[in-house]
Specification:
Layout (H helix, E strand, L loop, with lengths): L2 E3 L1 H11 L8 E10 L2 E9 L5 E5 L5 E5 L8 E6 L5 E5 L10
Parallel strand pairs: 1-6, 2-5
Antiparallel strand pairs: 2-3, 4-5, 6-7
Length: about 100
């Protein structure tokens, strides 16, 4: 499985992951809702389970993705400042370029 994190997202995530209370946690990306050929995504911090695959990104952030969830393979995590500040998770490899 693959996961891409942009520089903006990595900077924000690193600040959260570096907090002492998050020392043993990893970033988890999950599907909140899926229909047809695309999904909507969420994220949280958690610890690995036997249902997870740990993916190391080029930004040095490990991401937990549920095994055998095809719509998670290739997710992209971005952090935008405009028009609204916040995380945006898409999966361009599956044709999902943003929520509708």
């Amino acid at each position: 499985m693959n996961c891409k994190i942009t520089r903006n997202a990595a900077n924000v995530l690193r600040r959260e992951l570096d907090k002492p209370e998050n020392a043993d946690k990893k970033l988890r990306v999950f599907i909140t809702h899926s229909h047809g050929d695309h999904a909507h995504y969420g994220m949280d911090l958690g610890t690995p389970t036997d249902k997870d695959e740990l993916v190391t990104t080029d930004k040095g952030i490990d991401v937990l993705l549920t095994k055998d969830q095809d719509l998670l393979d290739g997710v992209k995590i971005d952090y935008l400042y405009f028009p609204n500040e916040g995380f945006v998770i898409t999966n361009p490899s599956k044709g999902n370029h943003g929520d509708h």
